[in-house]
Amino acid sequence: MIYADTDFFIALVKDDDWLQERAVSVAREYEGEIYTSRATLLELLVISDRFAFDRLEALSLSLQIASIQEDEDVLFQAADYMEQDGLTAFDAYHLAYADDDPVVSSDNAFDEVTDDRIELEKDDRSQDEGI
């Protein structure tokens, strides 16, 4: 399983995102193995006006691609990542939620805490466009 953070879904739903091709490739490669959190979907809603995408469509697409699992201990781990590693609240929550699974993201802040990030910014032009 891999955990998808917010920028993965932004890349999929934003019309002109430079990471879209790679995000589509990852979505295909890991179909049925991607999960996310309620915090990710909430963050997607928070930024929907700034990036001008249809929030209902974005949520529907996200839930087709990823499952959601919840564990309250994640909040305590996130607080620890904030305190110990200086991550923002959302980044800390994403990393804590992923536990030991890889995180698909373009945010290199994760690289200081884990070696297990699937980079969205990796240039992979061999995949077809679209999901």
TrEMBL record:
Stored InterPro entries: PIN-like_dom_sf, PIN_dom
Domain of life where this protein originates: Archaea
Domain PIN: 2-113
Name assigned to this protein: Twitching motility protein PilT
